[in-house]
Amino acid sequence: MVRVVLAxxxxxxxxxxxxxxxxxxxxxxxxxxSNSFHMLLVxxxxxxxxxxxxxxxxxxLAGGLNRDNMLSAEAMERGWQCLRLFAERLxxxxxxxxxxxxxxxxxxxx
Length: 110
Fold this sequence. Notes:
Nucleotidyltransferase, domain 5; hydrolase; GppA/Ppx_hydrolase; four-stranded mixed sheet; EC 3.6.1.40; two-stranded antiparallel sheet; elongated; alpha+beta; single chain; 2 helices
């Protein structure tokens, strides 16, 4: 297992197997935060982790959350735009090798 630090507060543990460099050696970790979304793409090479891409986008979801825990349309659109960007980069990675965590804003909103 390898520990991958995605952001200062999120560490993802990835189990790595010795395989050829194919899509099965690619991994992604995504942090859907209250103010920014982070994505880290890595691949396993000879038992170690090689960072391929690190993306951070400000989405400011928390600023769009009202007292009733409803997200504004603008905040949702910022989040969707970022997720579309992430989806483009995730095409070659098996879903079982993608880990996603979300902060309170996404867990609370309706």
